[in-house]
Fold this protein.
Amino acid sequence: MEGTIRELNQNEKQVILSWPKYPDPYQELDYSLRYGGWLDTIGTHPNCKKYGLYVKDELSAFSLVDLKTVENAEFYIAVKPDLINKGIGKEFCIQTLKKGFEELNLCRIFLKVRIDHAIGIHLYEKIGFKRIGETWENTNNKNVHFYLMEIFKSEFLKKSHKSQFRQNTNT
């Protein structure tokens, strides 16, 4: 499946809000796509980079790279619910990390993943993220247990990450 990555524009929030709900076992993640979700919270940070993956000109996923310092950022990714488990998440994750390390010149990217999200944990570890700790956070009015994971530029660049997605340089 070929796709193009480009910066997300504000109008595309409405497209994301119209996506269907996440199915089992991902329904706990659905809040991230709705009003008050990631685009309304993390996405409003002044140093947050927002990217969209477009497959056949349709927005299929989005990611956020929230710069914490000039060298470090927190990473978020969401795939359109009806496209889960089709390989889009992995490819888009890799391309977003490439943007972070190569274009933004970050040294470290970190994330939080729910401890019960085995598929996400496996995906992140396969890409090269390492578990560095655990935390509890109030998420969508629930106390949620997360793993903290990170990947360094040097480790990411050692791996061969080939992709079928094109980078749109007209951002």
